[in-house]
Amino acid sequence: MNGAFPERNPAFDGYIICGTPRTGSTLLCGLLKMAKAGAPHSFYRRQNIAEWAESWGVPAPGTVSGAEFDTAYLQAAIRAGRGGTDIFGMRLMKENLGEVSGILDRMFPGLPSDKARLERAFGQIAYLHLSREDKLAQAVSLIKAQQTGLWHVAPDGTEIERVAPPQELQYDSGRIARELAALEGYDAAWNTWFATQGINPIRIGYQALAAAPAATLSTICGKLGLPAPALHDVKPEVAILADATSLDWMRRFRAERQAMA
Question: pTM above 0.85?
Answer without folding.
Answer: yes
